[in-house]
Specification:
A 6-stranded mixed β-sheet has the order 11-6-1-2-3-19, with helices on both faces. A 5-stranded mixed β-sheet has the order 14-13-12-17-18, sandwiched between helices. The radius of gyration is 23 Å and the shape is globular. By secondary structure, the chain is α/β, with parallel strands linked by helices. About 35% of the residues lie in helices and about 30% in strands. The protein has a domain of about 80 residues: Dna Ligase, domain 1 (2-Layer Sandwich). A hairpin with a 2-residue loop joins strand 2 and strand 3. The C terminus is likely disordered. Helix 6 runs antiparallel to helix 8. The chain binds adenosine-5'-triphosphate and magnesium ion (MG). The site of magnesium ion has 5 residues, from loops.
Length: about 425
């Protein structure tokens, strides 16, 4: 078992490295390194040298804080190059024995054998449900009798070149990629409860350059997607509107911004210093909120259409959980609830121990989730002890983890 785990969240706005000690029932954070990100646009690398420098800075900070050298890390992936699809795999079960792990493996292999273009690679493949001799929705077929096992799998693919560019940038910073993990899967791991995942929920991580979504139903992921728009769009609007630099607009958004116009006093104003030598200008908070509300409503309209497109819009009984840095924008939750027409809460990482105060913020959901999910995939891909004391549940996990492991980028390098 490893005793140290590292998460490297490569965002559009920040790079966050977390070093944690793996303890039997918890991860204990021993060092964090947060640095501004450079060289990424909408989740895609656009300047490798800049990105490598930013990753190095974040990694060195975490090394210094923790006192450990970082050799490898779980790394986040997002961007508009991500696609997902559902696929079925069928396998025959021979003789009178019950279904075993090998059968599950073979069924997943069959589901995976769909035509994937040569310029794309499989990032994750997750079993959603099984059916045995036509009996649908079998959650755990292990030990059950039947002749024909079918798996319904969710497959997430990424552009090979986008992944290779990210991997090269990370490696140039002296870190090898332990696993790539899709952003919204990580965020879901950090902020969703088991009950929400069981009942049906969508996690929406609104970052700087991307909005990452994942739908969980009956305990597993059924749909994922990445919308190439995030909170930076609002900041950009403000720079144009008020003729102010980006960092000033950022501060204005955080201190005076609201996505809910009706919550703002129409008479309230504040001052900003525009470009040039002009005098400070008075801005009406109410007018600014109107512009922000329109943008936010537009974003949630895209999210709503994406949920509809998935076909699972009727199954989200636990509603939506929003997270990511932009989830902190005042009024955003209310607008989300109105546009999505479902209950919405803001999620942030909880149950953290160690030097983790800074991480208890929606902006670090992906970072914390990377650590947890990376370790989970690790544990469940380790061979089960031969004692026979292993529960069927964890054997299923093993299969899941085994598949995740087989699909590591190392496998798909060629
Ligand atoms: N208090 C706040 N109020 C409103 N917006 C905020 C606040 N704090 C951060 N943001 C916004 O959150 C965004 C950054 O979020 P986050 O740190 O999750 O991004 P990221 O992970 O680097 O980017 P991405 O996931 O898109 O690649 C920025 O648009 C920033 O303006
Ligand atoms: Mg992010």
């Amino acid at each position: 078992m490893r005793d140290l785990a590292v998460a490297l969240d490569v965002g559009t706005r920040k790079i966050c490295t977390i070093v944690a000690e793996v303890r039997p029932d918890d991860v204990f954070v021993v060092g964090v390194g947060i640095e501004p990100s450079l060289g990424m646009k909408k989740g895609i690398v656009n300047d490798m040298a800049q990105l490598t420098a930013a990753i190095s800075a974040s990694v060195h900070k975490a090394e210094k804080a923790s006192g450990f050298d970082i050799a490898r890390a779980f790394v986040s992936v997002a961007g508009s190059h991500i696609a997902s699809l559902n696929s079925r795999g069928v396998v025959g079960i021979s003789g009178q024995r019950g279904v075993n792990l090998d059968d599950l493996d073979k069924a997943m292999e069959a589901a995976r054998a769909i035509a994937i273009p040569h310029n794309r690679e499989v990032l994750h493949i997750v079993p959603r449900s099984y059916s045995l001799d036509g009996q649908e929705r079998v959650r755990s077929p292990i030990g059950m009798h039947g002749f024909r096992l079918e798996v319904e799998a969710h497959i997430i693919t990424a552009s090979s070149t986008s992944v290779a560019n990210l991997e090269q940038s990370v490696e140039a910073a002296g870190v090898s990629v332990d696993r790539f993990i899709l952003n919204p899967l990580a965020s879901g791991e950090a902020v969703l409860t088991d009950q929400e995942k069981e009942m049906g929920v969508v996690v929406i991580d609104i970052g700087g350059g991307t909005t990452d979504m994942a739908i969980f139903i009956e305990g597993t992921v059924w749909h994922t997607s990445v919308i190439p728009v995030g909170g930076d769009l609002i900041t950009n609007d403000l720079t144009h509107w008020m003729h102010i630099p980006f960092d000033v607009a950022e501060a204005v958004k955080i201190h005076h911004g609201s996505a809910l116009q009706r919550s703002i006093d129409p008479l309230e104003t504040f001052l900003v210093e525009p470009f040039g030598e002009g005098m400070p200008t008075e801005v009406q908070r109410y007018a600014m909120a109107e512009a922000i509300e329109l943008r936010v409503a537009e974003l949630f309209d895209m999210v709503r259409r994406e949920i509809k497109r998935s076909g699972y819009d009727g199954l989200l009984r636990a509603g939506a959980v929003i997270t990511g840095g932009s989830a902190q924008l005042a009024g955003l939750r209310e607008v989300a609830e109105r546009e999505l027409r479902m209950p919405v809460r803001v999620g942030k990482p909880e149950r953290l121990t160690g030097m983790a105060d800074v991480l208890r913020n929606p902006a670090y959901s992906t970072s914390v989730g990377l650590l947890r999910l990376g370790l989970k995939m690790d544990t469940i891909s380790r061979p089960a002890p031969p004692s026979g004391s292993v529960l069927p549940g964890s054997k299923i996990g093993q299969v899941l983890g085994g598949l995740f492991r087989r699909l590591l980028p190392a496998d798909s390098d060629g």
